[in-house]
Amino acid sequence: MKAIQYSEHGPADVMHYIELPDPVAGPGQILVKLEAASVTPFDWKLRAGHLQNHFTLPMPSVPGRDGGGTVISVGDGVTEFVVGDRVAVMAGVFAQGGYAEMIAVDEKHAVKIPDSLSTIDAVALTNAGLSAWIAVRTAEVKSGDKVLVHSGSGAVGGLLVQLCHHLGAHVTATCRSTNRDYVLGLGADRVVAYDEEYFSDILTGQDIVFELMGGEVHDKSYKVLKKGGHMVWLVADPIRDRGEEFGVNVTRAMITDDKSALQGMMDLAGTGLLKPQVARTMPLSEAAEAHRLMEKGAISRGRLMLTM
Ligand SMILES: NC(=O)c1ccc[n+]([C@@H]2O[C@H](COP(=O)([O-])OP(=O)(O)OC[C@H]3O[C@@H](n4cnc5c(N)ncnc54)[C@H](OP(=O)(O)O)[C@@H]3O)[C@@H](O)[C@H]2O)c1
Question: From atom 27 of ligand 1, which residue's Cα is the shortest distance away?
Fold first, then answer.
């Protein structure tokens, strides 16, 4: 099969489009012929070597935390899937990733794609969807909550806006001004454009902040929470925990390959309650260029997808 692989950390050029042996479905696994995979910020940060304090990546490595396609064989003991099923899969950090024409995964790391969703749309909901679902579950968002979602135009932020709106929260989101109408269209009640005004100068009394940027954005977000409010953060730039100082709870959303969370996203999207956001598609062979675009912040309004 064709796949993207790198053998050392470094710039996007370390990734090569090469021929690898086809994987085989082991016991309890399904073999999937992939149609698409997401390009995530985690992929390029891992490749660049920025996460070496957290993970020692076995080399060579095929990147990608998810994918979607059709089951072409099943291993012994598989009960949930048959050949021909369309599935979305979660790929482990230390296993082969989704930047490939095929992948073998444990059946507990796959869900069926609803008939109403294209495979590409389902994959746009896979890694980003897991992150958004688990963050919302961590925050225990309920109807009437005042919620601030940072980077509402990003892949995860856009899904957070949609999920919180669906749950009946009052959603304010940050993004650049050219994405204001897009984010309002996802269900935000209010947008604060970070290139026009500073959110912490104008917002107060929020019950929950979803913080996806780290650094200064994290630091300034405490001020907008009410006492007893909840800051739920995802890993980005380093943060300074100021929860005690401001009398708020601070929780990192621990994003794991949680099948029930992924199933929840698929069910909502399958019934049309959630719209997958695909920013752009590029062929698998152009993965290095896809990483360059992600690194310079040129991708907005959903996921950048690689297609096989
Ligand atoms: N395991 C984890 O903890 C975990 C999991 C998933 C994601 N994350 C992190 O969450 C972040 C978002 O991920 P993603 O996949 O959604 O990325 P993404 O699709 O690349 O979105 C990033 C968004 O950030 C927005 N942005 C840039 N500067 C901003 C600012 N000063 N204020 C508000 N928004 C700003 C951009 O908005 P505009 O386009 O409008 O400029 C862009 O759409 C990344 O840092 C990622 O590493 C962590």
Answer: 151
